[in-house]
Design a protein that fits this description.
The chain is mostly helical. It has a single domain, classed as Non-ribosomal Peptide Synthetase Peptidyl Carrier Protein, Chain A, CATH 1.10.1200. Strands 1-2 form a two-stranded antiparallel ribbon. α2 crosses α3. The longest helix has 35 residues. The radius of gyration is 31 Å and the shape is elongated. 7% of the residues are buried.
């Protein structure tokens, strides 16, 4: 019984360490923000874009997505899903591009101190010269 309690305690300790790592917390925040952004995009498509598309196709704008048809085929829901995908993927593309540019700017190494570089080169040349003279 004691062995089982220590295994459970070890598991809980490992899980707590995993769950409290910065990356996991950041991921959870990202998922929550992503879900909220998804609902905003869904509302944009359903309430603004699709009624405009319904008017273009000659359907009743009040019918919204269901009113968009081509012949006997109802394409409204499929069209809405494609528009949702395009908006979200384009937004993610812009966000990732912005993060990449920010990260590159952050990772650029500082220029080395020229006096230190010259001192190291001089020291290396002196040691090389001494080594060659000993031969």
């Amino acid at each position: 019984m004691a062995r089982r309690n220590s295994a459970v305690g070890g598991f809980l300790r490992d899980f707590r360490e995993f769950a409290l790592k910065g990356n996991v917390v950041d991921l959870a925040v990202g998922v929550i923000i992503g879900a909220a952004f998804g609902s905003i995009v869904q509302s944009l498509v359903d309430d603004i874009i699709m009624p405009i598309i319904a008017m273009i196709f000659g359907a009743d704008p009040a019918a919204g997505i269901a009113g968009v048809t081509i012949g006997a085929i109802r394409v409204g829901n499929f069209l809405a899903a494609i528009i949702n995908f395009l908006i979200i993927s384009f937004s993610l593309y812009l966000l990732i591009k912005w993060f990449s540019a920010f990260k590159r700017r952050e990772e650029e190494p500082a220029a080395p101190d020229l006096a230190e570089v010259n001192a190291r080169l001089t020291d290396a040349l002196e040691r090389l010269t001494e080594s060659l003279e000993r031969r």
